[in-house]
Design goal:
Blueprint: E1 9-11, E2 17-19, E3 22-23, H1 24-31, E4 35-39, H2 40-58, E5 62-67, H3 74-82, E6 86-89, H4 92-100, E7 108-110, H5 117-125, E8 130-133, H6 136-149, E9 154-160, E10 163-164, E11 171-172, E12 182-183, H7 188-199, E13 203-208, H8 219-239, E14 245-247, H9 265-283, E15 289-292, H10 296-299, E16 303-315, E17 319-324, H11 333-337, E18 343-345, E19 355-360, E20 369-376, E21 384-388, E22 408-413, E23 416-421, H12 426-429
Parallel strand pairs: 4-22, 5-6, 5-15, 6-7, 7-8, 8-9, 9-12, 9-13, 13-14, 14-15, 17-19
Antiparallel strand pairs: 1-2, 2-3, 4-16, 10-11, 16-17, 16-21, 18-21, 19-20, 22-23
Bound molecules: ligand LLP.
């Protein structure tokens, strides 16, 4: 189906859009709308593409840690665990989800630029594989927690490599303006390494960087890996310590629109692995254990959102609004980033998309749109539409604005559907009110 952005989408004998072999119109009927649908096999296939290419190009000394901020629920954690991959969590809530899903804690990395002491304690008590330390006060609080609990947690240090990787270009920045991590050029990162090595309460198992998200080019990833290994070489030379791990974060770009043309993930891995090997040879370093943290790449293409069309308003000479039963509450990405999506009629996906409409949400907010100028088949009240590639940063960023309950999440696999997160009821909406 060249029309569709992902090969897990298709059309069945009734002419309906399918995902993972399941009929989207039937899903809407059975589970109601708005509905998030996640394709289990697509998630598994993408995770395998990442870990298999790391095996191939970096002889397996690596771990893929799925970034659960992209999409987290217990079922997602179970799927990632069953693939043997790791998990990146960034809050007590994401960690708790992993714990309750029985996720192996030694494969969890705990992130965040402003972790509370309670969160650090929870991470240490539960024996997470590594804590990614963001700043010196946090390192000191972690040392105190470790002492109190009599443990020596593995840590990585979050470094700002000074690579600006937004959109399609990359520019080396002299000045780093980010709330995340230790700066290299001020000496802050080096000081943090010294403290981590001397305090005796933590084990420095790696350095970490994450240069951005939805990055299409490979050059910035190569540049970041190079900067990080230059830093590791400096640490070895001046402090005599070889940092065993290198975490290169996430950020792999995906196809949202038919016109997007991201590189296959394998190409990133191949080229970055080459840089790592070459840099290690140049500096006489042992090749590090590599971690990557893809979030969007794993979750986004595996998901779509189904809505029922309500009001249709044609404003002559201006635009046509098609309002749906969801909006910024379940997908805040347009209002936040003017992000673009493909949308199709779930009932008639093969028909030509003859109109360009503004798909609007149901919140009391003019900016509550799913998108503008979206090509779509003629749709009217009662029709089901599918917004594609919404598996990442939609459910995970959803809210209860206007006291609208969050949609259900359904997983599909080989044509079969199962509920993973129940739809919020009105009682759920008021459950914490006193
Ligand atoms: N690792 C770290 C430390 C991160 O901060 C992130 C994302 C990832 C990994 C995963 O990056 P990914 O592979 O998903 O690009 N809400 C935004 C995206 C924010 C990404 C934040 N950090 C959006 O909807 O586009």
């Amino acid at each position: 189906m060249s029309e569709f952005i992902s090969e897990n989408l298709g059309v069945n004998s009734q002419g309906h859009l399918t995902i993972g072999g399941a009929d989207t119109v039937a899903l809407a009927k059975e589970y109601g709308t708005p509905l998030y649908v996640m394709d289990e096999q697509k998630i598994r296939d993408t995770l395998r593409r990442f870990h298999e290419s790391l095996d191939r190009f970096y002889h397996g000394r690596s771990l893929v840690c799925y970034a659960s901020k992209a999409f987290s629920c217990k079922e997602m954690c179970r799927i990632v665990a069953s693939e043997g991959d790791g998990l990146d969590v960034v809050s007590a809530g994401e960690l708790y989800t992993a714990i309750k899903a029985g996720f192996p804690m030694e494969k969890v990395g705990y992130h965040g630029n402003n972790k509370t002491t309670e969160e650090l304690r929870m991470a240490v008590e539960n024996g997470v594989g590594h804590i990614v330390v963001d700043n010196l006060p946090e390192l000191r609080r972690l040392e105190a927690v470790a002492e109190e609990l009599g443990k020596v947690p593995d840590i990585m240090l979050r470094i700002k490599p000074g690579i600006d990787a937004h959109t399609h270009q990359f520019i080396m920045t002299g000045q780093i303006d980010s709330k995340f991590g230790f700066a290299l050029e001020t000496g802050e990162a080096f000081e943090a390494v010294k403290e981590a090595l001397s305090c005796g309460r933590v084990k420095l198992s790696g350095i970490h960087c994450h240069i951005g998200s939805q990055i299409f080019g490979i050059d910035p990833f190569e540049a970041a890996a190079g900067v990080m290994l230059d830093f590791a070489a400096k640490v070895k030379k001046e402090l005599g310590y070889e940092i065993p791990g290198l975490n290169l974060g996430g950020g792999f770009g995906i196809k949202y629109l038919n016109t997007d043309d991201p590189q296959p993930f394998e190409n990133y891995i191949e080229r970055v692995a080459k840089v790592v090997k070459a840099k290690c040879e140049e500096h006489g370093l042992t090749e590090p254990f590599i971690y990557i943290e893809p979030g969007r790449a794993v979750a986004a293409p595996a998901g779509l959102t189904l809505y029922t069309v309500g009001a249709r308003k044609e404003i002559p000479g201006i635009r046509t609004y098609v309002s749906v039963d969801g909006g910024m509450g379940d997908n805040p990405r347009y209002i936040l980033y003017q992000s673009e999506y493909e949308v199709v009629s779930a009932e008639r996906p093969l028909e030509e998309r003859t109109e360009k409409v503004t798909v609007a949400g149901r919140c009391c907010e003019s900016g509550d749109l799913i998108g503008e100028n979206m090509p779509i088949q003629h749709v009217d009240s009662g029709d089901i539409i599918a917004v594609l590639a919404t598996g990442a940063y939609n459910y995970s960023m959803s809210s209860n604005y206007n006291r609208v309950g969050k949609p259900a999440v359904v997983f599909v696999n080989n044509g079969e559907a199962r509920i993973a997160v129940k739809r919020e009821t009105l009682d759920d909406v008021i459950r914490n009110d006193v």
